[in-house]
């Protein structure tokens, strides 16, 4: 019965590593298979080394800060588009999505003050311009800011 300690790899499966720089009789003595002199015959070279030329990581500029990653991207709706909803109704982002005014109900919505509004509406959105609040309240409606 075979035991774990007696297992050996198959013949020819394991190749011995060549011993570099151990005399001429080994076939890899002298220059150890690296040729004669030169940069590659000596120590290691970093993969990013460009032969004395200014390296790419130093040629590329990296300055400043851009707030685009952290900016809040609102879906914008003007007050004039809210007139399509029935009077005395509560307008939420879900209703705006069903009406086709916004593309996603998960992104924040901002109401801007372009146009007129002649209906009493309760408008729920994430942000409002001051003119939009003025127009909605002058029509008799209310404004609710969502978190």
Structural commentary:
This protein has 147 residues and is of the alpha/beta class. It has a domain at 72-145: Ribosomal Protein L15, Chain: K, domain 2. Helices cover 13% and strands 14% of the residues. The protein has helices at 56-59, 93-98, 130-138, and strands at residues 75-78, 90-91, 109-112, 122-125, 127-128, 142-145. The protein has a three-stranded parallel β-sheet with strand order 1-3-5. Strands 2-4-6 form a three-stranded parallel β-sheet. It is elongated, with a radius of gyration of 37 Å.
Describe this structure in a few short sentences:
The chain is of the alpha/beta class and 147 residues long. The chain has three helices and six strands, in the order αββαβββαβ.
Element order, helices and strands? HEEHEEEHE
Q: What would you report as the Rg, rounded to the nearest angstrom?
A: 37 Å
From the structure provided, what is the oligomeric state, counting identical versus distinct chains?
Answer: single chain
Number of strands: 6
Structural class: alpha/beta
> What characterizes the major β-sheet?
3 strands, parallel
Q: What is the fold named in CATH at topology level of the domain at 72-145? A: Ribosomal Protein L15, Chain: K, domain 2
Q: Return the CATH architecture of the domain at 72-145.
A: Ribosomal Protein L15, Chain: K, domain 2
Give the rounded overall mean pLDDT. 92
Helix content: 10-25%
Give the low-pLDDT segments: none
* The CATH top-level class label of the domain at 72-145: Alpha Beta
Shape: elongated
Provide the β-strand percentage band: 5-15%
Rounded to the nearest angstrom, the distance between the terminal CA atoms is 72 Å
Order of strands across the biggest sheet? Answer: 1-3-5
The total of helices stands at 3
């Amino acid at each position: 019965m075979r035991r774990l300690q007696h297992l050996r790899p198959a013949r020819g499966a394991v190749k011995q590593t060549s011993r570099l720089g151990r005399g001429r009789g080994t076939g890899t003595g002298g220059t150890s298979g690296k040729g004669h002199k030169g940069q590659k015959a000596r120590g290691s070279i970093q993969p990013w080394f460009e032969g004395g030329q200014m390296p790419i990581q130093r040629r590329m500029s990296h300055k400043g800060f851009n707030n685009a990653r952290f900016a809040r991207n609102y879906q914008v709706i003007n007050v004039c588009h809210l007139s399509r909803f029935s009077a005395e109704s509560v307008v939420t982002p879900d209703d705006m999505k069903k009406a086709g005014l916004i593309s996603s109900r998960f992104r924040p919505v901002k109401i801007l003050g372009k146009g007129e509004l002649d209906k009493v509406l309760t408008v729920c959105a994430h942000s409002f311009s001051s003119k939009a609040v003025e127009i909605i309240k002058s029509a008799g409606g209310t404004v609710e800011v969502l978190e």
